[in-house]
Amino acid sequence: MKPRQRRLLWVLAGLVLVATAVTLVLRALNANVMFFYSPTQVLAGEAPPSAAFRLGGLVESGSLQRSPDGLQVRFMVTDGAQRVPVQYRGLLPDLFREGKGVVVSGKLQAGGGFQAREVLAKHDENYMPPEAAHALKQAQPAKELP
Q1: What mean pLDDT is predicted for residues 88-96?
Q2: Whole-model pTM?
Q3: Within 10 Å of residue 121's Cβ, how many Cβ atoms?
Q4: Is residue 67 scored above 60 in pLDDT?
Q5: Is 37 annotated as a binding residue?
Q6: CA-based, 20 to 30 A from 100: which of 17, 28, 35, 84?
Q7: Which pLDDT value is given to residue 10?
Q8: CA distance 17 to 76
Q9: CA distances, 43 to each of 66, 84, 85 (Å)
């Protein structure tokens, strides 16, 4: 084998290794990415029906229902225009309240509800996740339309 052919072989082997590494990194990122959707987007069919995602908005006042053992919880998440029923099994954060901002992560159920694996409540009076604040602003004009 000539030196030129040997160099070409090393360059091609390096390119294959780089392409393999990039492919593996992109697959790992794609498997761990979780997108945010508002209730309006979920009911419009924009959310993936079988993949996990985050749902954010406000906990609708009067919608919180707890099981006798206190671990099974049902509530509605609203953006002011639409609302999505959420089920969660586990302990809720201390700051979880009706009328306050919440982000839940999980999957859609067959009946149109949302099965949450994690519930995140806002941490102070002035904070709301940027995605939730944007979704609420987007929903206000839609609510005002006749």
Answers
A1: 88
A2: 0.67
A3: 16
A4: yes
A5: no
A6: 35
A7: 92
A8: 49
A9: 25, 8, 11
What's the one-letter identity of residue 61?
S
Q: Are strands 53-59 and 65-66 parallel, antiparallel or unpaired?
A: unpaired
Superfamily of domain 36-144: Nucleic acid-binding proteins (2.40.50.140)
**Where exactly are the structural domains of the chain?**
1-33, 36-144
User: Can you read off the two tokens belonging to residue 73?
Assistant: 């919880």
SS3 assignment, position 37: strand
Closest to 122 in 3D by CA, of 99, 139, 140: 99
Per-residue model confidence as pLDDT tens digits over 36-58 = 888 988 888 888 888 889 998 88
Is 92 a residue whose pLDDT tops 90? no
Is the CB of residue 86 less than 8 Å from the CB of residue 77? Answer: yes
